Amino acid sequence: MRRTLFESVVKSPLTEASPGPDDAALAELAANVECAAHRRLGRSLSIREVDAGSCNGCELEIHALNNAFYDLERFGLRFVASPRHADVLMVTGPVTKNMREALQRTYDATPDPKWVVAVGDCAADGGIFSASYAVAGGVHAVVPVDLHIRGCPPSPTQLLKGLLALLEQS
Ligand code: SF4
Fold this sequence. Notes:
Distance between the termini: 61 Å
Structural class: alpha/beta
Order of helices and strands: HHEHEEEHEHEEH
Helix content: 25-40%
Largest sheet: 5 strands, parallel
Strand content: 15-25%
Radius of gyration: 19 Å
Bound molecules: iron/sulfur cluster
Oligomer: single chain
Number of strands: 7
Number of helices: 6
C-alpha cells in the first residue's frame, strides 16, 4: 500500500494531455448556431438524442458537446429529456428492429416544426451493421431525415457544423 501511494506521488499521470482547443473558432461556430436558431425559431435550440442501436461511439461524441471543454449550454443549445420539448432529433446507430417502433413513436411525439439529424455512418445506411439480421436499416428507413452527419463517429465540431448547416438550409 505504501509503495502504491509513493508511486502515485512520484509517477506522472497516465492520462493524455487535452487537445489544444481552437476556442475562438469553436465559440464562433456555436454562436452562429445559436444565432441561426434564434432567427429560425425565435429561441434556443432543443435537442433530443435517440440511440436507435448504436455502438455508443457516436453517443460519446454527442455527450462531449456538454462537457467542460465544449460546454454548449453557454450558447443556449440544450439537450432535453422529452421529444415533446425538442426541435431536433439527433439519431445515432443503425435502427435495430427492436428500436424501430420506439423511434417512430419518438418522431410522432416531437412537435412541428422538427428536424431529424442522422448522426454517424451507421445512421446513414446501417454502416458496419447493415448486414445484421437485427437491423432495419438507416434512420431514413423509418423516419424522414433532414441531414446526415457522416463519420465513425463524427467529432463534436462536425456535429456543430451539421447543426449550423441544418438551420441555414431550412
Ligand atoms: S458510426 Fe461508428 S461510432 Fe457511430 S454507431 Fe456506427 S460504428 Fe459506432
